[in-house]
Amino acid sequence: MTGLSGSGDDRSDGPPDGLLALAVSMADAVEGLTTLWSVAAQGARVRLSPHQLRALQIMEAEPGLNLTALAVRTDVGLPAASRLCDRLEAAGLLERELHPRNRRAVRLHVTRQGRQALEEVAGRRARRLAVALGAMEPAEAEALGRALRGFLAALDGRTDGEDPTDF
After folding, report:
1. Is residue 158 domain-resident?
2. Domain that residue 116 falls in
3. Counting Cβ atoms within 10 Å, is residue 75 exposed (0-12), middle (13-18) or buried (19+)?
4. Count of domains in the chain?
5. 12 lies in a domain?
6. Residue 164 confidence (pLDDT)
7. Under 8 Å between Cβ of 107 and 92
8. Is 80 helix (H, G, I), strand (E, B) or coil?
9. Residue 130 confidence (pLDDT) above 90
10. How far apart, in Å, are the Cα atoms of 118 and each of 40, 42, 138?
């Protein structure tokens, strides 16, 4: 439960009560999804911490990324990113390659074994999510799909730079 209740005095400039109640419900659903996501990932053959999994996903999406860029994208310091890569490399999930034009620079690549681990986690997550969706009424699942598409479109269209935590 999110526990976003309070006196309400600080909401005079915030969203209407109906939207706030919906936001609380969404926050509860996200917490449930996060738990489902984490449990599914931890059941994989190769157990990865959330940071390791996120780093592999980033490197998969951006092959050849350097350590500094990985640190920025994972929001950790350079030493922590280096240790993270050391562990992933030791597990055979990551390989480092010298940059062909700059011998001081190192490129990071997910190995075949790393890609297999990512595929397994993605498959486990999709199956767990499908089970949860299958427990819903078909009309509810369809409505959820439409609502999520609308929500993502609204996020993509937000250009005012407004921080939702300002409410």
Report:
1. no
2. 37-125
3. exposed
4. 1
5. no
6. 52
7. no
8. helix
9. yes
10. 12, 12, 29
Asked if 108 and 70 touch (Cβ cutoff 8 Å), the reply is yes
Residue with tokens 């998969």: 60
Whether residue 27 lies inside any domain: the answer is no
105 phi-psi bin (left φ>0, alpha ψ -120 to 50, beta other): beta
What is the C-alpha separation between 122 and 131, in angstroms, rounded? 14
User: Average pLDDT, whole number, for the chain?
Assistant: 86
**Whole-number Å distance between alpha carbons of 46 and 34:** 19
Report which secondary-structure segment, H or E, holds 100.
none
Q: Which two tokens stand for residue 132?
A: 């949860």
Distance CA 103, CA 165 (A): 44
- CA separation for the pair 4, 19 (Å, rounded): 13
Determine, yes or no, domain membership for 48: yes
Q: What is the pLDDT of residue 98?
A: 87
Rounded CA gap, 122 and 3, in Å?
Answer: 30
CATH number of the domain to which 99 belongs: 1.10.10.10
The whole model's pTM is what? 0.74
Listed in order, strand segments (DSSP E) in 34-156 are: 94-98, 106-110
Residue with the two structure tokens 């005012």: 160
> Residue 167: what pLDDT?
44
For the cut 60, the answer to whether the pLDDT of residue 161 exceeds it is: no
